[in-house]
Specification:
The chain has 201 residues and is an alpha/beta fold. Helices cover 43% and strands 14% of the residues. The longest helix has 22 residues.
Length: 201
């Protein structure tokens, strides 16, 4: 998540008004190493600059645990993720947050449905972040050198294909060769939350 989980992420307590827009969400999906979290944080910074009340939530961290080690472990983590997301989003809503910026790999329509229900079935635009698997592997090795979570190109390609095959996105953004802030501006424009001229919606 952006900032400390106990902080007012996306809620500006300073002077001036904060935009209270109709509640809606943006979900960045994609394979491992696509840059989802980095772009979600950049999107949050753009929304903050436009004084839009928002929260950035990394879905992976909401289900990062190891309590069982059999074939049901993945399903258990997804169920826990949805329960944690519902609790976190409820807390943000109480603070006046109206925009949810989510980052996480969605592997099926059922998986997306669980996320939607966790945030109260608010309007949710899903954008898939696409990168070549070779670049994804390079990013992972730079981010987590020596980590056992960094798989082979074959494993990354296989997972990316699963995410792509899910077909849950309404748009695709290439995250190659551009500064993240530039890509984030494209995503914000696609979300419809901020017009190209900078006006809030």
């Amino acid at each position: 998540m952006q900032g400390d989980p106990g902080s007012d992420a996306g809620v500006d307590r300073g002077s001036g008004s904060v935009e209270r827009s109709p509640v809606s969400g943006l979900l960045l999906t994609g394979g491992v190493g696509a840059g989802k979290t980095t772009l979600a944080v950049e999107v949050g910074e753009l929304l903050r600059a436009h004084r839009v009340a928002h929260a950035v939530i990394d879905l992976d961290w909401l289900g990062w645990c190891a309590v069982s080690f059999d074939g049901a472990a993945q399903l258990q983590r997804r169920r826990l993720l949805a329960e944690n997301l519902a609790a976190v989003w409820g807390n943000y809503r109480q603070q006046g947050v109206s925009r949810a910026v989510l980052a996480g790999s969605i592997v099926s329509a059922e998986h997306l449905g669980a996320v939607r229900r966790a945030i109260g079935n608010i309007p949710l635009r899903v954008i898939r972040i696409a990168v070549p698997v070779e670049l994804a592997l390079e990013r992972l090795e730079l981010r987590d050198p020596g980590s056992k979570t960094v798989g082979s190109i074959g494993e990354l390609r296989s997972f990316s294909e699963v995410v792509s095959a899910a077909g849950v996105e309404s748009g695709v953004v290439e995250n190659t060769g551009r500064d993240p802030s530039v890509t984030a501006r494209q995503i914000v424009q696609m979300s419809g939350w901020v017009a190209s001229g900078g006006e809030r919606r």
